[in-house]
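To whoever is covering the structure queue this week,

Two jobs came back overnight. Logging them here so there's a record in the thread.

Job A:
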Amino acid sequence: PPGARGRTLRPLWAGSAARAVPPVFAEEHFEDRFSRVAVRAGGWKLIRVTDRSAGRTGSPSVRQELYDLAGDPAEATDLIRLRPGIAHELGEILDRHLEGMGEAPPGEPVEIPFDPDAERRLRALGYLE
């Protein structure tokens, strides 16, 4: 319908090439000890795992995993050592995304700036005090 937001699926129905799909990002945190962030792009998925369980004085360990989603949809075979170029490229995409998100400790509230009109509407709906 007019005014609807989204992307057309018409190229898929017509059998022509679809437009490039933007990367998809995921993030999960387990208390303040463990986190996992991921990027999925071009049929590949890079997962970065950070383990802070060494305690506050120890430095966290970070490892990455890379999966070919077309050939291995169950993500059973980590290809990080076999495809370092793809891992590096996806790592850069993930880093840019995370830099743009800012950083806050897991579980800590983050202040998000609103444009004045959005803030006024949220207050009118009772979402903000």
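Job B:
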Amino acid sequence: VGDLPDRRMREHGAKRGYTINHIARQFNKATDFDAFDYIIVMDNDNYSEICAQAKNAEQRNKVVKMKDFFSQYKGEESVPDPYYGGAEDFEFALDLIEDGCEGILNWLADI
């Protein structure tokens, strides 16, 4: 939190044409539930942690798992953190994120 993403993720993203230069921040339960229509999480731990911070069902229903938008990787349960892995783990994480983002765009186009 407060740092750039891992150098390896930035390098793998750059190979796909992405500029990954954002600074991460913690989820802010005081503002984020009201500020965002949807909160998309990468894994089950994030899902549990964010849902536990919700005050009510309306806030909880805003929390959605990225895996719910996978079309090519329907069997995957999450976007695994590639930090302790090799190049193939970073590539796989990006594959999942791209698949999920495509699914999100298709879903938003339908609502």
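Note for Job B: Residues 87-110 form the longest helix (24 residues).

Please reply-all if you pick these up so we don't duplicate work.
Q.
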